[in-house]
Amino acid sequence: MRCRMFKICLCFSLFSFSLKGQGNEASKYQFSRDEFKRHYKRTEYPRFTGLIQEVDATTIRFDDKVLTIRIDDINKQIFLKGIFYPNVFKGEETIVAKTDKELATMSENEQIFHNGLRNDSLTIGAFDALEDLNPDYKTKRYRFWLFGKGIMNPTECYFELYNKDATPEYEDKEFINGAVLTFFRRGTLII
To answer: What is the pLDDT of residues 3-42, one digit of tens each?
Structure first.
């Protein structure tokens, strides 16, 4: 029954997504442009100073937090170099899963709320460079979908990297090496 409901919800979400036009190139930039325009405030974030371990091709451990990402090797460097890391979007404190025994004492709503707060295991998907929104060659803007454990719908997030030494000839890998995170925003919930 749950599987069937999940499939119905997924089909409805995908259908709604295509009706709104969010899947095409023009709207990709329109929603993102609006987020940067309305909420942009430059803030330099420090690089992650803890232990970063690449567990496998799609999994990176940042101390006690695990991030699953599905992106190309060049953009993966944004995470492996500690430029962007889970503490930026979920805070310093780690909220881990409760044991089965603890979960059994909680109501379904409490379990959902608990999963929404968890930040020990997150997934990033639909990672996208927003080239048309880059204000200059020293700045690169991106968006991605953030999935939390036990939460069906992802949140669309936006961020910006800045490299003060970049030139127009810099390749992405070279740009990322000297970049700092200068903006992050949790946007809308994807339905």
So the answer is: 455 444 444 444 444 444 445 566 668 889 999 999 999 9
Domain enclosing residue 85, as ranges: 22-189
User: Which tops the pLDDT comparison, 21 or 139?
Assistant: 139
DSSP state of 165: T
In the chain, the largest separation of any two C-alpha atoms, in whole Å, equals 59
Number of domains the chain is built from: 1
What residues does 147 pair with on adjacent strands?
123
CA angle 87, 187, 17 (to 5 degrees): 130
d(CA 151, CA 118): 10
Question: Degrees (nearest 5) of the Cα angle 5, 115, 65?
Answer: 130
CA 94 to CA 37: how far, in whole Å? Answer: 32
- Tell whether 7 is covered by a domain: no
Residue 133 within any structural domain of the chain: yes
In this structure, what token pair is assigned to residue 126? 């639909």
**Cβ atoms within 10 A of the Cβ of 158, count?**
21
Instruction: Specify whether the CB–CB gap between 174 and 35 falls below 8 A.
Output: no
- Domain membership of residue 17 (yes or no) is no
